[in-house]
Design goal:
The protein is mainly α. About 65% of the residues lie in helices and about 10% in strands. It has helices spanning about 5-20, 20-30, 35-45, 55-65, 90-115, 120-125; strands at about 35, 70-75, 85-90. It has a three-stranded antiparallel β-sheet with strand order 1-3-2. The two termini are about 25 Å apart.
C-alpha cells in the first residue's frame, strides 16, 4: 500500500470508530472506575497504539455519559498527586453498553454479508 491509501484507510477507520466513542468509554469503565487520562491510555493500549481518541472528544463523551446517566463522576483523593475526576459506569450505562454492542454486532454481520467478508470474520474470531 502507498502512503496515500494508508491515510485514507486511517481516516475511514477513525470515522467508523468516532460514532462509537461513548460505547468505547463505557467498555473501559466496565473494567472499573477510571480517571480521564487513564481511560485514554486504556483505549490506546487496547489497540496497541493504533487508535487514540482526542482529549476534546473524550471529555465531550464524559459530559454526555454523565448527562445521560450512563456514568457518574466523582473526585478522587489527592494522595497520588493532583485531584482527579473519576468516572464509574451506572446500571443504565451497563444496559446502554450491552445494547450498543448488540447493535454493533448486528451491523457488522450485515456489512460482512454485503461485502462478502463474513467467512473471513468468522475464521478470524475462531482463532
Amino acid at each position: 500500500m502507498n502512503k496515500n491509501s494508508d491515510a485514507i484507510d486511517d481516516a475511514f477507520a477513525a470515522d467508523l470508530l468516532r460514532g462509537h466513542t461513548d460505547t468505547i468509554v463505557l467498555g473501559v469503565l466496565q473494567r472499573g472506575d477510571a480517571y480521564g487520562f487513564e481511560i485514554y491510555k486504556g483505549i490506546r493500549d487496547a489497540t496497541g497504539g493504533a487508535y487514540e481518541i482526542k482529549e476534546a472528544t473524550l471529555y465531550a463523551s464524559y459530559r454526555r455519559l454523565t448527562r445521560d446517566g450512563h456514568a457518574e463522576a466523582y473526585w478522587g483523593d489527592e494522595s497520588q498527586g493532583g485531584r482527579r475526576k473519576y468516572y464509574r459506569i451506572t446500571d443504565a450505562g451497563r444496559a446502554a453498553f450491552r445494547q450498543n454492542v448488540a447493535a454493533w454486532v448486528a451491523t457488522r454481520t450485515i456489512i460482512d454479508s454485503l461485502l462478502g467478508t463474513a467467512d473471513a470474520t468468522a475464521k478470524g474470531s475462531a482463532r
